[in-house]
Amino acid sequence: MLTKAPRGTKDILPDKVGNWLYLENLIRKLCGQYGYREIRTPIFEHTELFQRGIGETTDVVEKEMYTFTDRGNRSITLRPENTAAAVRSYLENKLYADTNLCKLFYIGSMFRYDRPQAGRYREFHQFGVEALGEANPAVDAEIISLAVQFLKDLGLKDIKLLLNSVGCPKCRPVYRQRLQEFFKPVIDEMCDDCKSRYDRNPMRLLDCKNEKCKELAQDAPAITDCLCDECNDHFHKVQEFLTAAGIEFELDPGLVRGLDYYTKTAFELKYVPLGAQSAVLGGGRYDGLIEECGGKSTPAVGFATGLERVLLALEMQNLLPETNYDTDVFIVALGDAVQAKAFEILANLRRGGFKAAMDFAGRSMKAQMKQANKANAKFTIILGEDELQANSVVLKNMNESTQETISIDELLNKLTTLTK
Ligand code: HAM
Q1: Which of 1, 124, 269, 389 has the most CB within a 10 Å radius?
Q2: What is the predicted pLDDT for the residue at 420?
């Protein structure tokens, strides 16, 4: 136990951190281009926020939340997603006060107690984007464009954009009724979750992961046949804007998403070779959530992408850049008497902007040279007692296998010239 991370969690080791920094840098640049500003909310929130926001009949709330009572007897939940928290912060900090469209993005850990497998973890990382305050379908299209550009900028190919509308509280009652009629003859064959959701929220039956239920739901009526005029018009306009922006999409009437707050637009980006966890990114409009959380009725739209899945897809397509951890200069210090001087040179080199390192274990010349090679050092500085006496060092160019003796006072200038 002591030497094993909890199931479904993973260390990000130093040789992989470069991949994460690569993603994060690209995200910050892209969000800057689109005018989205970063927000950092707490890792945990009041449980009620997610119960109310995500929906009591969803898998996330019913089975997957990390919920505990804190020492003050409050029910606290590690965030399973960040849209509800972004909305909470938007209301608490009155982020609506000086803009009619508040554009936010976030990067961070989320927590869901699900069965771990490739691409599905209990702690995972999302990059998400939320645009709060505007009902215009152009904003849906802007959000989708950003999502598509994110994966394109990474070089990912064969990504499918699936698009649907899940209607609104006006058109949904008609659809719920049609769904109940459709499922009534087969509900006894479905899983316990579906049975209990049949009355409370029959749309969840379309999202069940059970194979048998999936099969039974295959020919269920499509919500797009029940949309009210407003939702229908919105859905068509989103498609028009996407076409105008040159974004290809596929309509998928079966796409309902796993969280209850969605209204109108729902979309997912899929990378099929990832198999069961092929949903790399998902989002949609959630015009009722802000009011549900205690604010004024305010339209909003957003998405989130699982960065572990993005990294898996990048790995499969061989698109991860090499990270350079090479050292510029390695100092080989020989003997106790030269240690302080070597340390002074090391400090000066680092102050001068070089990636510098030295051996601290008093190893032999051969062992230290080996270390310099392992660190891929471009230059090695050799400092022995004779050199110290002469206030000089031997500077070795590791790539060209040449060396020269130079004064310590000239070292920094010399290296600066050589590395320009
Ligand atoms: P979601 O579909 O639940 O939506 O999650 C978004 C993405 O997070 C998924 O497409 C997937 O890539 C990743 N993801 C989810 N669960 C896991 C897991 N257990 N392990 C690894 N990756 C996972 C949301 O979370 C919404 N808040 C998105 C949103 C933002 N809608 C509007 N605004």
Answers
A1: 269
A2: 80
Long-range contacts of 400-403 (CB under 8 A, 24+ apart): none
The pLDDT value recorded for residue 385 is 97
Please, are residues 327 and 375 in contact by the beta-carbon 8 Å criterion?
Answer: yes
Ligand 1: residue whose CA is nearest its atom 13:
306
State in Å: Cα 286 to ligand 1 middle: 15
pLDDT band at residue 322 using 50, 70 and 90 as cut-offs: confident
Closest CA to 381 of 416, 357, 362: 357
pLDDT surpasses 90 at 35: yes
Q: Residues near 181 by Cβ (< 8 Å), separated by ≥ 6? A: none
184 Cα to the center of ligand 1, angstroms: 31
Taken as a whole, the chain contains a residue count of 420
Contact 225, 166 (CB under 8 A): no
H or E element at residue 162: strand 160-165
Counting Cα atoms < 13 Å in the Cβ hemisphere of 420 gives 6
Q: Ligand 1 mean position to 192 CA, how many Å?
A: 24
Please name the residue whose Cα sits nearest to atom 11 of ligand 1. Answer: 306
Distance (Å, rounded) from C-alpha 177 to C-alpha 171? 11
Summary mean pLDDT of the chain: 96
Per-residue pLDDT tens for 267-281? Answer: 999 999 999 899 999
Place of tokens 């802000």: 290
CB atoms within 10 A of CB 371: 19
